[in-house]
Amino acid sequence: MTRNIIQFVILFFVLVLAQAICSKICLFNVAVPIIFIYFIIRLPLSLGVNWLMTIAFFTGLVIDIFNNSLGMNALSCVILAISKRPVFRLYMPREDDITDTIPSIDSLGFSVYFRFMSSLTLIYCALLFGIQAFSLMNIGLTLLRIAASSLLSIILILGIDSLSTNHREKRL
C-alpha cells in the first residue's frame, strides 16, 4: 500500500512538471497536450468519491497556479473525477472481472482502457475549452481545439501508460 502511495506521489510531481512545460506548447495554434489528467485516470477505482474529488481538485488547482487560468482546470478535474466511475461502468458493466483496481492497459485490456481513457480525455477537453471559449461565437475553432487536443492527449497518455505499467512476462 505504501509503495502505491509513493508511486502516485512521484507520478503526480512528474506529470505536473511535464504539464507545466507542455502547456506552453500549442501545435498549429489549436492542439494543446494535456497529460496531467493521466494521474486522475490512473487513481484506483476503489478510492472513495470524496477522496477522488479532493485529489482531482488540488491537482487542477496546481495546474491552474502554473497556467494562471483562474480555476478552469480545477473545475474540469472535479467533473472528470465525478464522471470517472459512470464512464468505467459504461465500458465494464461487471466490476468483478477486474483483479486490479488501478486502470491501465494491463488490468483492463487495450480496448476497454482505450475507450475509457479516451472518453474521459474528451470530457475533460470539452469542459476546459468550453469554459475557455464561454460563448458560441467561434464554435468551429472551439470544436477543432477539443478534437485536436483530445487526439494529441490520447496519444501521449497511451505512451505514458505503456511506459509506466509493469509488463508481466508470459512464460511457457
Describe it for me?
- This protein has about 170 residues and is mostly helical.
- The protein has a single domain, classed as Arp2/3 complex 21 kDa subunit ARPC3, CATH 1.10.1760.
- The protein has seven helices and no strands.
- The longest helix has 26 residues, at about 140-165.
- The two termini are about 30 Å apart.
- The model has no long low-confidence stretch (mean pLDDT about 85).
In short:
The protein is mainly alpha-helical and 172 residues long. It has one domain (2-164): Orthogonal Bundle (Arp2/3 complex 21 kDa subunit ARPC3), CATH 1.10.1760. 70% of the residues lie in helices and 0% in strands.
Low-pLDDT windows of residues: none
Radius of gyration (Å) = 16 Å
- Main beta sheet strand tally, sense and closure: none
The helix/strand class is mainly alpha
Highlighted features:
single chain; 172 residues; mainly alpha; Arp2/3 complex 21 kDa subunit ARPC3; 7 helices; 70% helix; 0% strand; globular
Topology:
Layout: H1 2-22, H2 37-42, H3 49-67, H4 72-91, H5 105-108, H6 110-133, H7 139-164
